[in-house]
Design brief:
Oligomer: homotetramer
Helix content of chain A: over 70%
CATH architecture of the largest domain in chain A: Orthogonal Bundle
Distance between the termini of chain A: 30 Å
Number of helices of chain A: 12
Radius of gyration of chain A: 19 Å
Order of helices and strands of chain A: HHHHHHHHHHHH
Number of strands of chain A: 0
DNA sequence: GATGAATGAGGCTTCATTCAT
DNA sequence: GATGAATGAAGCCTCATTCAT
């Protein structure tokens, strides 16, 4: 597990590894790597948008082609299946998480600050692509088992970003010893719930309020007396 | 049943209203109410099972008919649409929640005990129909808006069962003042998460451990000093 | 191998066995056996006609449906695949051979007469469904290996009808000892060639002439002196 | 009709005529004749191979391009159509026959020897390109009528090579008078059958045995008493 | 009330062909 | 001359729904 500030140094390699292990699974008939990148981005952008609104099954390849401004045939040069488009789409969303959380941590060193920033960032990325976030819950099961695993793996990797922050807090004596991955899930579900239950939550509080309240909830259980003091200091100096 | 101010007095009527407002939307060509009840149960049982495993779109009416041991034509005598079957199925799952939670509260009077029992029960019902629980997340959006509302309404009503317990604890001075419905969602998502992330959680802890840890998490934030004392007393007397 | 007059007594059972072993390979979603029989006959009749004229790949399921006067969907209730339709079609043609040759032998007892009648009948059935006969040569390879085997098996069984006649002639001392199955193929190809090369043969001779000349060709090589005498006696008494 | 040794003198012109009448129908966008020749050979070699194995319709232009080691676009510079590729492929096979049979006759003068050599050669070329030989039976009908005629014409020309030998035997008094072209077809089908029924024949005899037996079969019917004596003399002197 | 055969619109996917580079 | 990315018409097949028995 990374220490206080080693997190963002660890993440990129993990990212690279995932990418390496993922792209081979989806072969394109086109060899030009740059073009593949570009076209797939085009296709996925359209797909995520449509899948988010209408769901996987109600969205046709025709729809995606039209939205992306390309022909149906073109899609099939960059993708084997409609399933492929879904996989790419789901991964694209998870990718966003993995890109944005580290960005929010840049320059931050205090473990508690980093933890709060990470959860805050997670909630905000989810908010920024709310429908897309729900997509994972709706459609992952539409994938064949093997591909489902790829998605799960990507989720676990994103979770690591949070887990590392928690771990750092524990090691700094700010958090009590706890089941790190389980606590991570509490944080993850806090973020996801915002998207999953947005239809109701939006009537109960603002995103800011939601995050603040959620963090307090989590911290109440995790902070050690030392951690609590540290938190108050931070609050005071703000 | 909670005391305080009548929440439980609100629920049953709500139930009745929901039922009244629901069944009329799904008309059967068959008039004999008992038969309708029986046939629908048969159909829904098959549907929930298949939807849970294969998803809504991958399950055909033919599949459902075969699983239910009836003919295709029969299904269309008790249901207008494939959508109807989905709605009925989703409501059936929510129904279970609404049936089981009150059962777990029977005979309990202490507010804190009731709260814990409610959350515990919720987690356990969800666990008992894990796949079915996920179904709501996967397929609710496949429903036309109007019907989606019915499902949301049913969810809100289930939430009331938890909310009432929280409210009671607050009124008994055991919980701090809080946004009741928001906290309810924390509890609800605790239960739902068990199903949604079962693939990973099952490797991190047992259901018992999950519930216990989850409750502690929530209580850490909610209990007042009084509540904390009360909780310790309860633990001691156990 | 059947004796002089046992042939037609053996064929039917063989037929039955093949049928039993064939139908299970093609499952229908409809259970009513009579209806399946009727519908398949309808579909196959249309398919053979169209395949014969336009070939397998140029014929669409739509075409077949239209020709058969049924809907596309109906076809798929009696057949799994377009491949299935092809298999059924090919077998249907072979079936005709297996039905017509024994019919031509009914009541005939003299081995040489029977042999000539068998070859004659074969040539005439082929002529009666010329295009369909060619279909086997054009399209059998379009079938997956396993199904190709079924067709080959059916061909071998048809060949047995000829082979039995040859065998009987040998046993009666009319034909010299020879590689029965190989000679059978000469006879079979005589018949098939009429269809395969009809475009040219029809300008060289009539079917009657073709058969007569072909039989003479074959008999010239096979008849023993005894056989030759017997043949002349037959010719004289005619 | 050519005499004893005029055959190979006649063939080339016929060849040239056919070539003249064929190539114009298939226009290339490339003008350099040598290059056209080379590229087409490359394309056809790949096509024959793939068509033989997978059939015409299951083979894509992409497959052919890959097998030939050229681009898709290049193919369309040397060919108008996929149909064109098929025509070229079918003719290529027939070409082989027309090249190999005369080669087998080189230096032979005795009519009976020449006849046997011709049939023997035909059977052996067919054997050497068995799958390709079958291709003509499978795919000629996939061609539009006009082009089908070109293929038929090419077949008739190949037949002439055999017909000439038969004619020579008749004129030498070795064969009885007979319908030369019809008998030619018996010979042609003997050769073709080896490919068409190879799946079964290969289990009944060797190619050598097949040819020998086949020739005896044919000769039994054709040889005059003189011819028969001649044949025995040849056999004795061998 | 129950059945299940029949329908056909609509989706996914392939692949011959074109054309800009 | 050569390339291969792009196109989109067309085919196979599925499956919700109907209706005659």
């Amino acid at each position: 597990m990374p220490k206080t500030d080693g997190i963002d140094r660890e993440a990129p390699p993990a990212d690279a590894v995932r990418d390496e292990s993922r792209n081979p699974t989806i072969k394109s008939q086109v060899s030009d790597a740059v073009l593949v990148q570009k076209r797939r981005a085009q296709i996925v952008a359209a797909a995520v948008k449509l899948f988010s609104v209408h769901g996987y099954y109600r969205t046709t390849i025709q729809d995606i082609a039209r939205e992306a401004g390309v022909s149906i045939g073109l899609i099939y040069q960059y993708v084997k299946d409609k399933d492929d488009v879904l996989l790419l789409s789901l991964l694209d969303v998870l990718e966003t998480y993995k890109r944005e959380i580290p960005r929010a941590l840049e320059g931050l060193t205090d473990p508690l600050v980093r933890f709060k920033a990470a959860v805050d960032a997670y909630c905000r990325v989810v908010d920024s692509r709310r429908e897309a976030g729900v997509l994972n819950y709706r459609s992952t099961k539409s994938l064949p088992r093997e591909r489902r695993e790829i998605v799960k793996q990507a989720e676990i990797e994103t979770n690591q970003l949070i887990a590392a922050c928690i771990q750092a807090c524990i090691e700094a004596g700010l958090f009590r010893a706890c089941n790190v991955e389980l606590v991570t899930y509490h944080c993850v579900m806090l973020a996801h719930s915002w998207a999953l239950k947005y239809w109701r939550l939006k009537e109960l509080c603002t995103l800011d309020g939601y995050i603040e309240e959620g963090l307090e909830f989590i911290l109440a259980s995790l902070l050690t007396p030392t951690g609590r003091q540290h938190a108050e200091t931070l609050a005071g100096s703000r």
